[in-house]
Amino acid sequence: MKIVIVGGGSAGATAAQFAKKTNRKAEVVLFDKEGMGLYSRCALPYVISGMDWKKIVELTRSDFEKMGISYRNEEIKRIDIDARIVEGEKEEEFDKLIIASGAKPSCPFKAENAYFLRNLNDAIEIRRIALNAKSAIVIGAGLVGIEIAEALKKIGIEVKILEYMPNILPNMLDKDVADYLMKKIGLDIVLNYKVEEVQGGEVFGEENYKSDFTVIATGNKPNGIIKDVIDVDEKCYFREDIYSAGDCTKVKDFFGRAINVGLGSIAVRQGMVAGINSAGGNESLIPPLFSKTTKVFGIEIASVGLMGSEGVSAKYIGKDLPNYMEGEEFLIKLVAKDGKIAGAQAVGRGAAKVIDRVAVAIYARMRVKDFAKIENAYAPSVAPVFDCLAIVSNILQRKVEDEKDI
Description:
The chain is of the alpha/beta class.
């Protein structure tokens, strides 16, 4: 059996490893157009701020070869599904195919001489430019845009962020939570701004802005080669003998919504499933919740599930330790749908772990009234008797009862 994987990112590299683990006799061929081995794309902003890029490389060409995986530094330009051939520098036949070709930057306006952050070379180039600059504009205040802005600030240059939506992190936080965070991080951010054109360091719109250079972080779009976005099921199955994983795919989440993947945590799990199944196994991906987290300017942020507008919500701001200890401020917003836990957003120390607790409750389809009764571990130096999640759960329970969302 010959298994060909197109794309050497998180999904593709993981697929190659699990295909080989599942079927040791299979010939596994991994095509990677970058030729840098497997590295963490999520760590690219840290390369901009000064981290040695070699530290984020997780597997080299020789590592793949030691695992019995043929690593090819080639770009696949064409896939003939019927003939079972992929075409790089030459044609390569396959018995099973995994498409993990990732995504490419999406830019809804005309842009020239601007920078995008999609791969390691982009990060190295942005750092090179930034070290000789005094100011920069970042277009887009999503996760990547905020992280790029922080990286540039660490270098010591002045940064302005332009965002089309009415709040930062619009796909992660409700406006009230985002506004709370925006005050905390203290960045120069212009909201509700529509970019018309970018020319190098000049951005044109209702008001024009000028800096030494511009980085565009307005999201990515799937790059599935055979089609823009590839719809897959829980088996990462596309069609007979063909699987797909990672940013080039669309999956149904826990709530039944078809969503472009775009998250490394899900891409890796898809890669595992696609690799196992292509090699003769039988594995499934549980419907993802698209949990997100990051840490910017020393502040941890996390979210999961539905937004506040999609259900009944309650918000609480308190401390992560008892009042007599030196705790830190913590914001938690909890969302319910049909009386069940359905989403949350958190800002503060330990936000990701709190969100993970909520994720388990969502998967368990736990009712708010039951979730509100769960104890949390307590010690004065670690957590209060009733932590912020416990308190907001009880507030939400009362709102659910009042609004009869039960």
